[in-house]
């Protein structure tokens, strides 16, 4: 399974970006998917997750600003990020957790999001 993330970039505070993660080589609809991020000097953190059934989870710091969604027909998961803050600056990674595995074992490459103040 390969995950290809895209959509990062430089944006001013208050702006928006949409990240995409396209999956290939597996049964995407059976995976729980998530977005993680890692800022310089910090540990990687789970930002948002979406189960195979569509249930979502958000870390408190992004609730109300970020929206995770998936399109199983396109094998793609999205992260819509609004009202961006400088503290959202990080490398963002998508990850896949196949049903029954219980862990995110598939990872895409990072896409850098930089929010200027």
Distance between the termini: 37 Å
Oligomer: single chain
How large is the radius of gyration?
A: 13 Å
Structural class: mainly beta
Number of strands: 11
Tally of helical runs: 0
Order of helices and strands: EEEEEEEEEEE
Report the uncertain regions.
none
What does this protein look like?
The chain is globular. The protein is mostly beta strands. The protein is 0% helix and 54% strand. The strands form two sheets. Strands 2, 4, 5, 6, 9, 10 and 11 form a seven-stranded mixed sheet that branches.
Short description:
This protein has 117 residues and is an all-beta fold. The chain has strands at residues 2-6, 9-12, 17-24, 31-38, 45-50, 56-58, 66-71, 76-81, 90-98, 106-107, 111-116. β7 and β8 form a beta hairpin.
List the defining traits of the structure above.
117 residues, mainly beta, 7-stranded mixed sheet, 11 strands, 0% helix
SSE order and pairing:
Blueprint (H helix, E strand, L loop, with lengths): L1 E5 L2 E4 L4 E8 L6 E8 L6 E6 L5 E3 L7 E6 L4 E6 L8 E9 L7 E2 L3 E6 L1
Parallel strand pairs: 2-11
Antiparallel strand pairs: 1-3, 3-8, 4-5, 4-9, 5-6, 7-8, 9-10, 9-11
């Amino acid at each position: 399974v390969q995950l290809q993330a895209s959509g990062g970039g430089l944006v001013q505070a208050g702006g928006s970006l949409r990240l995409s993660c396209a999956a290939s080589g597996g049964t995407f609809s059976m995976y729980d998917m998530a977005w993680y991020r890692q800022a310089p000097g910090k540990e990687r953190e789970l930002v948002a997750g979406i189960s195979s059934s569509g249930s979502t989870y958000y870390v408190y710091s992004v609730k109300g600003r970020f929206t995770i969604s998936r399109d199983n027909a396109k094998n793609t998961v999205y992260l819509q990020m609004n009202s961006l803050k400088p503290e959202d600056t990080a490398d963002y990674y998508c990850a896949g957790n196949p049903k029954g595995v219980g862990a995110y074992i598939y990872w895409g490459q990072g896409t850098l999001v930089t929010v200027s103040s």
